[in-house]
Write a structure and sequence with these properties.
This protein is of the alpha/beta class. The protein contains ten helices and 19 strands.
């Protein structure tokens, strides 16, 4: 098992040299602690070593916020310009005539003309949803110099599933309870068996990617499955995504870094666990929690792996081992701090 060095000293020490390849690593914590900054830094470090990195941005924060403010300082830190390519994933309909290429925009124009001719009223949203249903496949456009950071913006669970070779729809299921009230829960409905031949696999192969980052896995799940009765669909969606990611790890020798939020027990505020439950907990062989300085975990303070770097200010963070095959939970932590160049 090789490692992808991140140049965050604490993380690299805790993970025995960096993000491990061939498996999934999880980084979780509360908001505004720097999970996305550390993710971008890890991708830059990977490219600086001569390998592409893929970032799946589910929170739509990289292009308009994170990259403009961090790109140049991080590039100076690594001593070279880092190319960033926004991968264009366009939906396309399936055509029985291989000689003819039909684009999604062609389909939208055709549907609109047909509905206008028939005198059927419709909204733009309805037209977009109909086009998506008729365009189950993605057409992958990868243009630019490699190695590079490859950025994909995928804010929905359905988009994530399709990216991972799962043809499914997520829709509400209504049922009447005994007192005649109507309850609604979200269901996952497969339209075809999951396929290993996914757009994400093709992208990883063509780019020679060594690192895959999900930032974050929890955001689209929370937005799509907000209620407790949605747990089966949420768990199934997450399981299929992670199974595909793990297969990519093994087949291509990649490392996978997943960021997630925390679930807090309201009766025990100290009890913070990664969002995603047993599904993510089982797949992630390494897991770290990021906190502010002063936070304690696991009933004790643990052992600092770099006590010489201790500091207490707004830029200071702690990285805790929440899960490690060779270490007890929360037995070790490391000091880190952030500036414009990232984590140190």
């Amino acid at each position: 098992m090789s490692r992808i060095k991140t140049h965050c000293k604490a993380l690299d020490i805790l993970l025995d040299g960096g993000i491990p390849t061939g498996t999934i690593t999880q980084l979780f914590g509360e908001k505004q602690l720097g999970k996305s900054i550390l993710s971008l830094q890890s991708a830059f470090a990977c490219v600086a070593e001569g390998h592409s990195a893929i970032i799946i941005d589910t929170e739509l924060s990289y292009k308009n916020y994170l990259i403009p403010s961090r790109r140049e300082p991080m590039a100076r830190r690594f001593g070279r310009p880092i190319d960033i390519i926004q991968v264009d994933l366009q939906r396309k309909p399936r055509s029985s005539d291989r000689r003819r290429t039909v684009t999604r925009s062609d389909l939208v124009a055709g549907l609109s003309a047909l509905l206008e001719k028939m005198g059927v009223s419709y909204t733009e949203l309805q037209l977009e949803e109909a086009a998506d249903a008729l365009c189950p496949d993605f057409d992958l456009h990868l243009e630019g110099r490699l190695p590079a950071v490859l950025l994909l913006e995928v804010p929905t669970v359905e988009g994530l599933l399709r990216l991972h070779g799962v043809d499914a729809i997520i829709a509400p299921s209504r049922s009447k309870e005994r007192d005649e009230r109507v309850s609604t829960r979200m269901e996952l409905r497969l339209r075809a068996a999951p396929s290993e031949q996914s757009p994400l696999r093709e992208l990883a192969r063509r780019a020679g990617a060594r690192l895959l980052i999900y930032d974050s896995i929890s955001s689209p799940l929370k937005a799509t499955f907000p209620n407790t009765q949605d747990l089966p669909a949420r768990s199934s969606s997450l399981a299929m995504i992670l199974t595909h990611a793990q297969k990519l790890c093994v087949d291509y020798g990649m490392g996978v870094l997943i960021t997630s939020h925390v679930s807090i027990n309201p009766a025990q505020a100290w009890d913070r666990r990664p969002y995603g439950g047993a599904i993510l907990g089982h797949e992630a062989k390494f897991s770290l929690e990021i906190t502010r300085v002063g936070a304690s975990r696991g009933g004790g303070r643990g052992e600092a792996v770099n006590p010489e770097d201790e500091r207490e200010d707004e830029a200071a963070r702690l990285l805790w081992i929440q899960r490690h095959p060779a270490l007890p939970d929360y037995s070790k932590f490391g000091y880190a701090w952030i500036d414009l160049e990232g984590f140190h």
